[in-house]
Structures are given as structure tokens and as C-alpha cells.
């Protein structure tokens, strides 16, 4: 089959007619009316955009491009998830926060998604002895949302499909792509299909085929790292009356250094728990007795909530996933190709930012398209120079949080740190914003977040220095005048607890300079 040689100069309807790829839906017969929403740039245009990957970011990007009036084709290697059966007790959720919500808002989907999500107003820390403590994320109404991954993906696909200028092609796996000309080859069952586009947007995840092609024909740098931890998802069923087995509106955490578990609530009363453990651990647990022994050792309070037998059954059925961090530079190839989401920056999940960052990519790209009057070359260059450093920054932040979580964090130190963070924020609300807060509840570029964090650390150090000096002076004076000795000793003790914690935090978070 010959490639469809459709350029920008050809009328859109003709472009559609000449499209060589027809998937389940007959794209030729569909009249492509242009109804750009999102205001500002209302000029209809016949440029063709191919989105590779119909995951969270690909579906979102299709919507953005459609709303700018482009002729959009979305290619996804899997079949349409909306037509697949729901498997009971296998809902996987994600934490949606400010960056992701802002991107959803711009395409008019924020309310729909927010109403189906469950707000989490803070973390609930489970200690080894089963005690729980709650640490809010911020002021009363500040929260992140637990959303169903599949439902979110379906919402985005359905919204994109409603646009008259979008065509979806499921069961299309990109096998080859000429980044310079926009020619692509897809495998559709036993057939090979060729097509072209003016712009190829790679949203095909951490093992991106678009990126692989781009690396071959341009000087694209690439870096990948697997961490020694894997993850396993376990579902905690609702109580008999259908309500949640633990506090509903919280992100539950069992921090145990090398072993960690996190749980997010689902609409149906269940929780999806994710264990993060070294692969060695997963490999070493081969039978029921060992499993229960390990759970009694690390997550004892969770056993009755899972139900012993259910736990065993799920543990030995569900797979262990691996965690990879990927950076690449640049994110674009001229004005023809750009990588978004995990394809550009896969990160370890220890900040809950992968999807949020991918959604923010779409939002930023759209802002720049508008600014550059829909000129691809100018837009992609500006996009890359702005976004690539921030993508590196969040990959680093996530990796440092991983290192910190596994090396020093048990439930006591986790609690203490969060308390010190909020105390400092209370004392200096303008100059000290906790790191998680800048990442999760703001749109401060990730690179700037790191810069601000360094400045804050300096302030803390200076503060601690002044405090130490004062306490020391008091101590000397106290030795001289016995009477104040007790007071100054107390002060020194305080100093030690106050400074030792943030100092460790600093070292752990950011040795980035
Ligand atoms: P993907 O979701 O990987 O989608 C890529 C799509 O491309 C897939 O549909 C795939 O089938 C398709 N594809 C691949 N290759 C081809 C090809 N050759 N041709 C055609 N199609 C192709 N993020 C958060 O924001 N919050 C969280 O709480 C959170 N928790 C997480 C927990 C875990 C355990 C993990 C592993 C990740 C978590 N993330 C979280 C990260 C989040 O899952 C990802 O960042 C997000 O899914 C990236 O979306 P994407 O669309 O870029 O990639
Ligand atoms: C990991 C897996 C708690 C969902 C980091 C916090 C995560 C999520 C935290 C997963 C933690 C860790 C933050 C949020 C969030 C916390 C955060 C991590 C959602 C520093 C579905 N992390 N995650 N930090 O503060 O900023 O609550 O799988 F355990 S949401 Cl590791 Cl805010």
C-alpha cells in the first residue's frame, strides 16, 4: 500500500478521503467539520497530527489537538479498552493533583473527573504496631484525588472521539516511523499500513517506539534506569456493609524503609494497595507461610483487612511490575515530532506525578502552539527548551524521594519530618513551602521547585546556626551563673531535635547541586 501523501495544501475533506487507514470506524465517510473550541485561535487548518498511543496522555493530547482544529489520528496498539470487560476487583487508581487538574480544566473535563474521584485530604500513616496518625496535605479543603485509571482513560477517549476531526485507530501498533518525513508504518493484526502526518506526537509510554525511531535518525540522548524495587497491586475489599475498611479520604502509607505499602481508595468501597519491595523480596516469598510471616513482620494490621486467604490468593496471582526512570534530550525532532508523557520522561512513582506531569506537558504544548500561531517548528523548539529541564527535574525529585523513602523513613521519622515541614511553613508561610506542596499543589515549574528548595535549605541552616549560637551563648552564661543552666540545657536539646531532622532531609532530598 502506498503512503498517503497528504500535505498541508490539500483540503481537509480530501485529506480524509485520501487517508489510507480505516480502522473499525470508517473515517472516509466522516465529514470533518472544524469546530475549534478553547477560543483564541479559530482559523481552521488542514495540518494532520498523528498521536501515537491512546493511554492517558495520548487521549488527552488528541483532545487538545482536536480543539485547535487539526486533523487528528490517534493510533493505539491495544484494542479499545471501552469494549473490554470489567474485571472485578482489579481497579487500579492514581493520585490526580493540581497540574493534572489544570490540564483537564482547559479541555472542560475537570468537573466530570473530579466528581468521580475520591478526595484524599492527607496521609494516614500506619505504624508497625497498627497505630495510625493523620497528617493533612494543607488547609482544610486542600486535597489530591484518587481516580480510576481506566475510567479516566475512557473519559478522555470518549471526549476525543466526540470531536468530528478525530479518528481513532485501535489495534494499530507503530512499528516504524521516519521522523524526518512523518511516514509511519503500523501493524494492524496481519496487515501492514502506511500513513503520514505533518506532526507525529509520541505518547507511547516508557518504551516508546517513536523515541526509538527518533534515536536512530537524530542526535537524541537517552538514559534509562531500573530500580531494585518492584511493585505488586493488592485489592482490599470493602467491609460487609460495603463501606471502606479504612479511613476513606486518605492516602494510606506503611513506611518501613526497604518495604513500603501505599493504599488509595476506590469508589466501590475497596482500596488498591501497592507494595513496593526489592525484587529479592518478591523472589524469596514462594509459599503461603513465608508470605504471612512477612506480612506479620511488616504490615500486620493489613492482614485481617485483606482477609488471610484472599491475600494469599491475590499475592500469588498478581504480577510484580518493574519501575523504570527514563530521561531523554531533546523532546522534539525539528517541527515534525515531539515526545510527551512517559515517552519523554518516565519516572519512579514516589511523588505521584507521572500522569500529572504528562498532562501538564499537553497543557504547556497547547499554550505554546497558541503563542506561536500554530507553527510547529517554532512551537516545538520553544516547548523543548522550556520542558526538557523540568522533566529532568521531576525525574530527579522522584528518584531522590525513592532513595529517601527506602533509606531513612519509618513511620516515626516520616511523621516527624512532615511535622517539621508544616511547623516551618507555619512560621514562614511565604518563604518556606514544603517540597511536596510545590510539586503537588502548584504549577511552579519543577526546575524552579528544586531551586526554591535549595534556597529554603539555606534559610533553615542559617536559622539553625543563629539558634545554636544563642543556645551556646546561653549555656556559657548558664555555667557561669548556675541558675540558667537548666534552661539552656533544655534549649540545646530542642535545638538538636529541630536541626537534626531537616538536615537529614536536606541531604536526602537534594544532593543535586
Ligand atoms: P502509558 O500510560 O504507558 O500509555 C502509552 C500507550 O501507548 C499505551 O496505551 C500503549 O498501549 C500505547 N503504545 C505503546 N507502544 C505503542 C506502539 N508502538 N504503537 C501504538 N501504541 C503504543 N502518576 C500519577 O500522576 N499519579 C499516580 O498516583 C501514579 N501512580 C503510579 C503508580 C505506579 C505503580 C506506576 C507504575 C505509575 C504511576 N503513575 C502515577 C505514573 C503514570 O502511570 C504514568 O505516568 C502515565 O500512565 C503515563 O501515561 P502515558 O500515556 O504517557 O503512557
Ligand atoms: C506512589 C504510588 C506519600 C500513588 C510520597 C507522600 C504514590 C502515589 C509522598 C502510587 C508517599 C510518598 C505525594 C503525594 C503521592 C505524601 C508526595 C505517591 C501517590 C512526598 C498508586 N506522593 N503518591 N509525597 O506526601 O508528595 O503523601 O501508586 F508514600 S501523592 Cl512515596 Cl501529595
Task: Describe the overall structure.
A hairpin with a 4-residue loop joins strand 9 and strand 10. This protein has a seven-stranded mixed beta sheet, sandwiched between helices. The chain is built from 17 helices and 19 strands. Helix 2 (56-67) packs parallel to helix 12 (354-371) and helix 16 packs antiparallel against helix 17 (485-509). It has helices at 12-18, 56-67, 98-106, 110-116, 149-162, 209-217, 279-284, 288-298, 303-306, 308-317, 342-345, 354-371, 376-407, 411-427, 435-441, 446-480, 485-509; strands at 48-52, 71-75, 93-96, 118-120, 122-126, 132-136, 144-148, 166-169, 173-178, 183-188, 191-196, 199-202, 221-236, 250-256, 259-265, 271-278, 321-329, 332-333, 337-339. Mean pLDDT is 87; it is low at 1-37 and 500-513. The longest helix has 35 residues, at 446-480. The protein is an alpha/beta fold and 513 residues long. Bound molecules: flavin-adenine dinucleotide (FAD) and ligand EGU. The site of flavin-adenine dinucleotide (FAD) has 31 residues, from helix 2, strand 3, strand 9, helix 11 and helix 12.
